[in-house]
Amino acid sequence: MELLDAVENPTSAEKVDELLTALEQLSTQKTSExxxxxxxxxxxxxxxxxxxxxxxxxxxxxxxQQSAGTPYGSTxxxxxxxxxxxxxxxxxxxxxxxxxxxxxxxKQLDALHLLKHTNIQDADTRTYVIDLLQRNQGGDASLxxxxxxxxxxxxEASAERQAELTNTLSPYLHSDDVTLRxxxxxxxxxxxxxxxxxxxxxxxxxxxxxxxxxxAIAISALxxxxxxxxxxxSTLLNILADPNESKGAKAAAGRAIGVxxxxxxxxxxxxxxxxxxxxxTETKQIGFN
Length: 289
Fold this sequence. Notes:
By secondary structure, the chain is mainly alpha-helical. The chain has a domain at 182-289. It has 17 helices and no strands. Helix 15 packs antiparallel against helix 16. The chain is elongated and about 75 Å long.
């Protein structure tokens, strides 16, 4: 019998095992093409099965525990994290914590995928992710980015942890690697709260970041309405008023300041009105072209 015929309605342990075996073979054959495995029909059927069959989730978790750190383990970590009910298993968190404590980069990446997509982070897991970022400074960029994405995916940290998180991410905002600067700002914008340390980090990047895309992230973060208008007013208005500023920076600053009720200061209103007029003029010119 063909494998796909056998899993048309896969509920038995035997059929789960066939799917897991098929994915192990695919993972071994395509060690450098994880996306190809994830896009396979076998992966899709396993993921759907995991969403409705608790026994299948446990079987897959046991396989992951044995194969973590390998291409097959990465496949299973993603299947579990993308299934509908994986977060119901306390064993998922236990395994993720165990893998995070490993010195093996591939195992740590598997753990971060579990934490990011299953949304099972709590104070303990966030502590381990922050610790991983602290220990990995100057280390592997892919691991650092995965940790940043995990922090970002799970929302704002508690008030007690925000200062620590900001201090942990701040060194990355000055990295030579543009992807780390961008990842650090995105994580900080999502989880770092509205403390003075976060405001300073965004303000410095909004004014001094050389990469236009990364700078736009910082400028946009100032407009998420979690800061007081008085604390971002000068930075955003100066960007809008500077005739030498790039269009991208001005556009980001215009969107950011538009989140707040504009004050009654005549100069501020004139700067904002001039910016809106510039935008309208550019739109008309594009239309004529």
